[in-house]
Structures are given as C-alpha cells and as structure tokens.
C-alpha cells in the first residue's frame, strides 16, 4: 500500500512550499512506505512533468532537491509500499503517465492482469513495469483516448475493476492533468488490510485554504472541520484552490 498527497495552488511556488506544514508529516510515513517516491507537477508550459526514484523518501536528498526546485501550481506526491512479489524499480514506481497525466494509486487489485482486456495492445505495450497500479492507469487512459472525460474514465474503470477482479482492496487514486487533480476513493471494508490497519487507513481527505487546497491519504492528524473526508465511490476534481471540490 502507498500514501498520496496533492496540492492545487493559486500561485506557482516550489512544491515543498506548496505542501508547507503537511510535507514533513507526510514524508515521515516513509518509515513504512519506503519503496520509492514520485512527483507529478504541471510545468510552466501547461503540460505534466514527472520525476521518480526508488530510494526511501524521508532519507532522499534528491527528493528534497526536486521538491525545492520545481515551481508549479499543481502537484502530486506518492510514496510507495511495494506489494509482495513486485520489484522495487523505477518502472514500478508511481506516478505513471506522460505529458498529459500523472497517475498514482494506493491499493491492490488482484490479479493484476485482470485489467489487460480493458487496454488496447498498443497502449499495454507502453507499460513501464508490472504493477496493477499502472494497468489501472492505462485502463483509465484507454477510456480518455476514446473520448471520455477524466472523471468518467476513472469512474467507469473502477466499476469494471469491481466486476472483474478477485479482490480490489483499494482503488484510491490521484490523477494530475493540465486541468487539475482528480481523486477517487474506494476500498473493500472487509479486506485483511482494514482488519490490520483500521477503518481510516484508506480514507482520502482534503483541506481548503484561500490560496491552496491539499488532498491526501490519512496517516497524520487531520482534524475536522479543517479537514473534510471525500465520499467513497465518487470522483472529485480540484481545479482551483478557492472552489470545489466538484464531486461526480
């Protein structure tokens, strides 16, 4: 399992500055989620850039340099806890995507190849690694390439996974596009992970301020009403810090 955080801001600034007081508590989660990190951010040209590595996030000099270097108004950050039998490699590290999207997932889908029939052969060949998470993204991307909106593509892919998978422990994701951050929260309340970790382990919450909005996995204090929990089974879009989220 993994941890996710995203930010949408009114004005561009280094990613570390945009995440502010939430950055260090988030990185401390790498004591357990230690199998790599990745950043997706909107560039000054309006496209999506990504950088990722396999070292432990809270000990990574490179990560801190990247967080200080990239100035943006939208970004997501992922720290990985590798699923059993999946290698710790750059190809398996989130986010996945290209200049139009960066996709990060927190959960597990079994078996991973259950999504392959939802992805065209040409797109499937572009996979960097072996993860269920990347296939989740490619299935979403397949829908977008066929004309679906990002929100509709995430929702329909989640429904297809529920129908086909033997287990969908969590479908939580953040997807950064040039238009904003899309989030989706859904987990299996009867999974063994919930039994071990507690009901809040797969929650996604957001905090809105005048100049920025943060959306994140749980794992450090996020008290209400400052933080609000996103509804399960719904796509949320964060496009401006002073609006939304829009729930689909």
Automatic annotation (TrEMBL):
UniProt-listed SUPFAM superfamilies: N-terminal nucleophile aminohydrolases (Ntn hydrolases)
Signal peptide: none
Pfam families: GATase_4
Record bears the keyword Manganese: no
All residue ranges annotated as the Glutamine amidotransferase type-2 domain in the record: 2-248
Record's keyword terms, sorted: Glutamine amidotransferase
Classification via PANTHER family: GLUTAMINE AMIDOTRANSFERASE, GLUTAMINE AMIDOTRANSFERASE YAFJ-RELATED
Protein name per Swiss-Prot or TrEMBL: Class II glutamine amidotransferase
Naturally occurring in which organism (per UniProt): Kineosporia babensis
């Amino acid at each position: 399992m993994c941890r996710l955080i995203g930010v949408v801001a009114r004005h561009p600034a280094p990613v570390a500055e945009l995440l502010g007081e939430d950055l260090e508590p988030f990185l401390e989660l790498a004591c357990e989620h230690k199998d790599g990190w990745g950043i997706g951010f909107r560039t000054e040209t309006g496209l999506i850039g990504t950088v990722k590595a396999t070292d432990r996030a809270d000990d990574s000099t490179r990560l801190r340099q990247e967080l200080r270097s990239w100035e943006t108004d939208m970004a997501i950050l992922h720290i990985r806890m590798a699923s059993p039998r999946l290698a710790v490699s750059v190809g398996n590290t989130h986010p996945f995507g290209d200049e139009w999207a960066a996709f990060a997932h927190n959960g597990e889908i079994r078996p991973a190849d259950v999504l392959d029939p939802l992805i065209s052969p040409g797109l499937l060949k572009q996979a960097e690694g072996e993860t269920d998470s990347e296939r989740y993204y490619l299935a979403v991307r397949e829908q977008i390439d066929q004309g679906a909106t990002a929100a509709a593509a995430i929702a329909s892919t989640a429904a297809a996974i529920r129908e086909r998978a033997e287990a969908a422990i969590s479908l939580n994701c953040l997807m950064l596009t040039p238009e904003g951050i899309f989030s989706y929260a859904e987990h299996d309340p009867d999974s063994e992970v919930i039994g071990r970790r507690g009901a809040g382990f797969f929650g996604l919450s957001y905090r809105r301020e005048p100049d920025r909005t943060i959306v994140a996995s749980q794992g450090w204090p996020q008290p209400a009403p400052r933080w609000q929990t996103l509804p399960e089974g719904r796509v949320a879009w964060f496009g401006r810090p002073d609006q939304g989220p829009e729930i689909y």
